[in-house]
Amino acid sequence: MGKISAPRNNREFIDACVKSGDAVRIQQEVDWDNEAGAIVRRVCELGEAAPFMENIKDYPGFSYFGAPLSTYRRMAIALGMDPASTLPQIGAEYLKRTNSEPIAPIVIDKRDAPCKENILLGDDVDLCKLPVPLVHDGDGGRYVGTWHGVITKHPVRGDVNWGMYRQMMWDGRTMSGAVFPFSDLGKTLTDYYLPRGEGCPFATAIGLSPLAAMAACAPSPIPEPELCGMLSGEPVRLVKCETNDLEVPADAEIIIEGMILPDYKVEEGPFGEYTGYRTSPRDFRVTFRVDAITYRNNATMTISNMGVPQDEGQLLRSFSLGLELEKLLKSQGIPVTGVYMHPRSTHHMMIVGVKPTYAGIAMQIAQLAFGSKLGPWFHMVMVVDDQTDIFNWDEVYHAFCTRCNPERGIHVFKNTTGTALYPHATPHDRKYSIGSQVLFDCLWPVDWDKTNDVPTLVSFKNVYPKDIQERVTNNWADYGFRGAKK
Amino acid sequence: MANKWEVFVMDLGELAEGKELELTIRTLNDGLHKYTYQRAKVEVSSKLDQFADSLQVRLGRGQLSDRRFSIRVIERVERMPARYL
């Protein structure tokens, strides 16, 4: 694999985005109380450049970087690619890098770690010293973690997990957050810490390098520090925490250390989420007690403002869920031609292209998809044939509306695992992460005669001879048409 | 100085008047600690001049209620076990 020149930290990423026109510097004062959140929300809805807000009310010296990865252009920049790279190109690069050899992190000396430039311990610890934003009006609190990594380690297996679990500031030393029982951290808590009544050490890293954030967001089976190394082509620099044995990205802007309490909870939420709704009500959730805060000089807090499409949660999660499912299906020998989630589905619908070479292939795909670690994050799988462009929603939608037989093509999976964030789920199902899922099989049945039973697609590219297509295309402007590009 | 507080409830019936309640309230006073929470024993009244402090209410999904209250914070309640403080 050739040398990768991806931004190594959040600051290099911001500089690259500003240089390419994919970020704007905002030097006028911005209020942490709603205004910054509103800016980021509008950026997401308009597909604008990412806002780098350098002057935060009440918090001199701090800055915000909002919507860091809410466009494919910024995702390409994060990977060190041309910002104009197409989605299939970005996906191919992701697959290439994440199928390479894992790259182990290195641990550096504290004196070389930028995140240790300021250290707050003991009575100095106060989350209110950080510019924690009120992201949406009406949220249950100011959210410390919206684009970050919560770092934990399984004490027996040694698995390190960087996960993006939302975290609300309850008071100056307490955070609460949504940790689903099927998540890696949820399993570690229920498997080890909660039965023993032991606190779970954690560290929250904010202002990660974009590829570290990508790793934290990806549902990959590869441990995130190694995954981040594979994505960036070099080892991640880690440094040991001040108050526990965890190791955190040394180049992160802000680190919050502490313990997840095993026997005490405070309220959390509601919060505007990636589904485009505030779905879950306020409830008593996993509680994080803070023991230390460390941060860089002039630290930049990253903000994701989740809501209606499209934000980085939708974009990146759709991207990585689709590609991880593609790897899984290919590992099982299924002749998939591609897997894609449109971000506008708020990563709820998985579209799988496949060569329909045997009966039941769509069902096999759905069973693998829903039965995998990825499954709780989406509830719809749509399987189309290899002639349908999975990236073209017009084609996918047409296939769905015309080939999915209402009686034979729709298969409902009941009593599966779901998330508390599903807007369509009942309050009871949300509380207990009870899900239901559905397969839309949009393949022609393999026992239909291909000549006489399967309908012929009537489209320009399918029914006309090549020479006629070329003649019409080449003469298009001469006919007097001006707008069409195809 | 009068303080401004906010509470989240699923139902306005949770804010019974004329009795001591224990609520999780957050401060709306301007400053670095705005929106931080505390648990407190309080008394609330729909008469806005009954108590010096004001209380606004949000419902389950963050909707701001048009009902307003005055509130008296009787004392702070610490529920967190002492070993974590």
Task: Report what the structure shows.
The complex is a heterodimer of chains A (486) and B (85). Chain A is an alpha+beta fold. Chain A folds into three domains: 10-303, Pnp Oxidase, Chain A (Roll); 332-441, UbiD C-terminal domain-like (3-Layer(aba) Sandwich); 456-486, Single alpha-helices involved in coiled-coils or other helix-helix interfaces, CATH 1.20.5. Helices cover 28% and strands 24% of the residues of chain A. Chain A is built from 14 helices and 22 strands. Chain A has helices spanning 10-20, 35-46, 72-78, 87-98, 184-196, 210-217, 224-232, 312-331, 361-371, 393-403, 427-431, 460-463, 466-474, 476-479; strands at 23-26, 50-53, 63-66, 106-107, 118-121, 142-145, 148-153, 160-163, 167-171, 174-177, 200-206, 237-240, 247-249, 254-260, 266-268, 283-295, 300-303, 336-340, 349-354, 380-385, 410-417, 434-441. In chain A, strands 5, 6, 7, 8, 9, 10, 11, 14, 15 and 16 form a ten-stranded antiparallel β-sheet that branches. A five-stranded mixed β-sheet of chain A has the order 18-19-20-22-21, with helices on both faces. The mean pLDDT of chain A is 96. Chain B has 85 residues and is an all-beta fold. Helix content of chain B is 0%, strand content 48%. Chain B has a five-stranded mixed β-barrel. The relative contact order of chain B is 0.29. The chains are: A alpha+beta (486), B mainly beta (85). The A-B interface holds A 33, 58, 128-129, 134, 136-142, 169-172, 174, 259, 261, 263-264, 266-267, 270, 278-279, 281-282, 289 and B 8, 10, 24, 26, 31-38, 58, 60-64, 79-81, 84.
